[in-house]
């Protein structure tokens, strides 16, 4: 908690203390540019993460839907095979429930195509069993194998199954997005630590004089920390704004969950990138402070 | 207040100072002489903890230097006014800000002490130079500014390293006068100088002890000084 007031300090500004370190126009510009570029990239990584997340959720929902077993068997075997299928399903791990769709329900399903007077009983219609999976899901291949042994007329139709690799890919993409944001933050920390190191070296004489007149390390560090924090904040704010504009003008269909057309922020998502400048400022604060305290240890 | 006990120091090669003992009491006035390169500046640096001795003990205001952390050293330095041989100003800041730097470093409200600062600048005769940058000043002006910075925290001890180097005799006497005034206020003064005339001039006004570094040792100079 001792860091928070110091972080606040970094923005409050103290003209007297700020002037003790001579200004350095060029490196200041570089730090700002770095922060701006990193924030710009982070906006895209964030948009990618959120879009991939939406995609994974959307496809994931579809997966939770039920699968069906279709049984087509010669007239005499229909009842035995149906019983066999139900028995198999009852003992298959990963299945929460199996429901034989009653004939009248089946007739209602077919009515829109064939009219209400269809003599379902007289038609060789397949029977349908609706399966609800548990959260863990079932092993479809194993079930197919068992069904072919017990009820040769049964066909497992899990048409949603093809989506699983896509959901996995979307999840991985989301993870990559967050990882990118982490790497962008770490890169920014490294770059700021480097330029803080250079600034400290360039001002070795100033630091020496300050130590001689009784300045504590934290006081000296603050002069540098304040500078770099403010530059990172300003740069990141510019970069974030630019990134958000770029994302806003990306062409998209506005509704679909596709990776390309869905890249962007929805609703309250737009508030998330606004945290980037603050995170950048925090990163700069930490990186500069650590660097400064380490360098100062070497000066009497 | 400042106590050196059997202190030795070397910069890596042989010992420059060896078995030095020194005690600065409140209200005392010491001169430190010796040929160039004898180690006068080095001894002063040991007194305000810019250097740590290779042997012996340094006690500052009753606290052992060896047991102090960096913050404690910083706080202790605020109680010792130092006129450095090379002044040690920040060349990008105007003189007034250089002189009030110790206040800023100590976290004091500089604006609130503007009156004191002005008085101090007048005392050393630099009111007109308040806005000048240190490189624009003459040698004597810089020496007086350094003295002003040394006393702005109202320290009880003042260590002056060649405070009259690079200035003419008249200016030397003026600076000496300021140091004698500070001594009369009860402050302990230690002046490193190779200017024997300055020491003689001072002796007419204060009971100053003269120390000399000779052959790595600290000796009390004879009555000829
Ligand atoms: N940082 C250092 N590293 C190595 N040697 C040093 C260092 N500082 C001083 N010396 C050496 O120590 C010796 C004493 O230096 P010091 O500055 O204490 O002498 P001084 O008595 O103050 O001389 P002067 O009258 O010229 O100011 C000199 O020979 C100098 O070269
Ligand atoms: Mg010297």
Automatic annotation (TrEMBL), chain A:
Spans through the membrane: 33-53, 175-202, 232-250, 270-292
Name of the protein: Cell division transport system permease protein
Record bears the keyword Cell cycle: yes
CC annotations in GO: cell division site; membrane
Lineage: Bacteria, Pseudomonadati, Pseudomonadota, Alphaproteobacteria, Rhodobacterales
Listed GO biological process terms: cell division
InterPro entries in UniProt: FtsX
Organism: Rhodovulum marinum
Assigned keywords, A-Z: Cell cycle, Cell division, Membrane, Transmembrane, Transmembrane helix
Keyword set includes Membrane: yes
Automatic annotation (TrEMBL), chain B:
Residue span(s) of domain ABC transporter: 2-225
Keyword Ribosomal protein: no
Signal sequence bounds: none
InterPro entries found in the cross-reference section: AAA+_ATPase, ABC_transporter-like_ATP-bd, ABC_transporter-like_CS, ABC_transpr_LolD-like, P-loop_NTPase
GO terms classed as biological process: cell division
Cellular component terms per the entry's GO annotation: plasma membrane
Highest taxon listed in the record's lineage: Bacteria
Keyword line: ATP-binding, Cell cycle, Cell division, Nucleotide-binding
MF terms in GO: ATP binding; ATP hydrolysis activity; transmembrane transporter activity
Keyword Methyltransferase set for record: no
Protein name, UniProt field: Cell division transport system ATP-binding protein
Species of the source: Rhodovulum marinum
